[in-house]
Amino acid sequence: MSKPSITPLLSSIRLTPHLPPQSWYLVAGVTLSTLNKPDEIPHVFQHAIEEDGGSAAAQINIVRRMREALVKASAIGGLPKSINALFALKRVTPPALFDEPLAYSPTQRSVELYDIPSSRILQRGQSFFDQIYGKVSTRVMGQMDRSGTEDLGITARLMYGYILSNTSVLSPAESSFVLIAGLIPQDVRSSI
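Given the sequence above, the corresponding structure tokens read:
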């Protein structure tokens, strides 16, 4: 059962119009991770399982989607916060729902890293970046390239290519909501 202090938050997010189906727990988990509240992640997971995880397949889907959202949130909120959130989630995840280390990954990121030309992944990332930023995407990327170090633009291209544009587990719309859920608590309006 969820802690009473976050139950209203979870209910409020769950009832938010225009969220993609079954994405409320992604938004809640990423927001709490970004706020550096990893101890709340297990409550989100338990609430999602209670509400949406009747079958073993549904539970695997929930935990994989939560993990993917937290991995993607590392690009926005920082890797240390995602690490803390992912380990908090792991502590309450039944072993039957783990993906085995070095085995099949539903994201196929290891395949992308080692077997697919980086130019293809980086182009996918650029397309996703363009989709997110729309008509200002060229200007935004150009500003990063001219930020005083070309490494900012390179970092953005790598994050969008290898992390954010991977839609094997989360759809583009869900990934966009994950990004927004990580940006809003940080009050970085220029990035939204």
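The radius of gyration is 17 Å. Try to locate this feature in the token string yourself.
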